[in-house]
Design goal:
The chain has 398 residues and is α+β, with helices and mostly antiparallel strands. 46% of the residues lie in helices and 19% in strands.
């Protein structure tokens, strides 16, 4: 039940994020004197609509985003004679750029607000976290009491006796690759005798033989005997702030997230093979992108475990991704329209230096072939990501 609630809430959060993106375009257009003919949430058949002023607002049946119809966004738009002077393509360059950046800015603003909430309520995770399978504290192995608390123990544990050290990064457990602490724990617990860890220490790969101890632990499927080696995760707790300090902290964190988001965008083409491997039965790389369904599933899983801070962080990350993705200079993305506006400005400036009159607006018909290619490739990537999320979803918790 909690999973379903988290799934729905995250999907709703995505819908609101996209709707506010379009609000950013709409409000900027209205503020600069342009005419917004329609603003709808969703696509497909119309559920209802109402008119306020010169704009029709409404809801459509498929909650997969939204759109904002600005009169004369391109010279191809059909316009009423009285709307010609307010056509977007005839406006000053700065006004057009303000409108196109309005949606992008809205996503970054929403992401920033979510980070402020996170900083106050749960704390901001640190970017200098070590790899997820980094060994932290070394300790003895304690037996579990009937009340699920751990009994006192003394001495060293199996991992420490085997020569493992704090800071070792575990790459594999008995030959099974691990990338999360949950995977490390699950693989360790299933061992029934001496086994090996493949670790990385000081840039070198080593193999360490460990003899675990058998203990009783309360797991999701009930109490059972498992293997333990006496180690903890090297994890830095999030830094929590008061309401005033959270604002600059979230601002700095936004800058860091923007850089990482741009780096992730640059790596998207390289992820095709990893996604294909996941679809065809191979292991799913946790660094591969996710679809709306996949992100909502992660939202449901974090809610199910009460990790609402992670829920908010993932939603904030999604907004930064939406904002950064729309900066890509390809039509039909906002970045493509921004590139056209800048091209027209530079072209007309050069013509002015030559004593020539400004040229007409860019012919979008000539750009249609490139736009179609971008749409087809982007659509195929989205389908591949969706299929991977259905048949082989990312496992944050095991």
């Amino acid at each position: 039940m909690v999973f379903a609630l988290g799934f729905v809430l995250f999907a709703l959060g995505i819908t609101i994020s996209i709707a506010l993106h379009e609000c950013g375009h709409m409000w900027a257009a209205q503020a600069t004197g342009m005419k917004v003919r329609r603003y709808f949430i969703g696509f497909g058949p119309k559920v209802f609509s109402f008119r306020r002023g010169e704009t029709e607002y409404g809801l459509k049946a498929l909650p997969l985003g939204g759109f904002c119809d600005i009169a004369g966004m391109t010279a191809l738009d059909e316009l009423e004679p009285e709307d010609l002077d307010r056509a977007m393509y005839r406006q000053a360059t700065w006004k057009r750029l303000v409108v196109m950046f309005g949606g992008i800015a809205m996503n970054f603003l929403l992401g920033f607000i979510l980070l402020v909430v996170l900083a106050v309520g749960w704390g901001l995770p640190r970017f200098d976290q070590p790899p997820a399978t980094t060994i932290g504290a070394m300790k003895c192995v304690a037996q579990q009491n009937p009340d699920k608390s751990l009994a006192d123990c003394t001495g060293t544990g199996p991992a420490q006796r085997a020569g493992m050290q704090r800071g070792d990064v575990v790459k594999a457990v008995n030959g099974v690759k691990v990338t999360t602490w949950q995977q490390f724990t699950a693989e360790t617990q299933k061992q029934t005798g001496p086994f090996s860890y493949t670790i990385e220490r000081d840039g070198q790969t080593r193999t360490i033989e460990v003899t675990p101890e058998r203990v009783i632990r309360s797991l999701e499927d009930g109490p059972r005997e498992v293997s333990a080696v006496g180690v903890g995760s090297e994890y830095y707790e999030p830094l929590q702030y008061n309401a005033l300090a959270a604002i600059p902290a979230a601002g700095a964190y936004t800058g860091q997230m923007f850089v990482r988001t741009v780096q992730s965008l640059a790596q998207l083409p390289q992820k095709v093979s990893a996604l294909w491997t996941a679809v065809t039965g191979g292991e799913r790389d946790p660094e591969t992108p996710v679809s709306v369904y996949g992100a909502s599933k992660i939202g449901g899983e974090t809610a199910e475990r009460g990790l609402w801070g992670v829920f908010i962080l993932v939603l904030a990350s999604l907004n930064f991704f939406l904002g950064a993705f729309n900066l890509v200079p390809l039509l039909p993305l906002d970045g493509g329209h921004i590139a056209v506006v800048l091209y027209e400005k530079i072209r007309n400036t050069v013509r002015g230096w030559k004593g020539l009159a400004p040229a007409g607006p860019v012919d979008y018909l000539k750009l249609l072939p490139v736009t179609y290619v971008a749409v087809v490739i982007g659509g195929a990537y989205m389908v591949l990501t969706l299929v991977a999320d259905i048949v082989n979803p990312i496992q944050l918790f095991r």
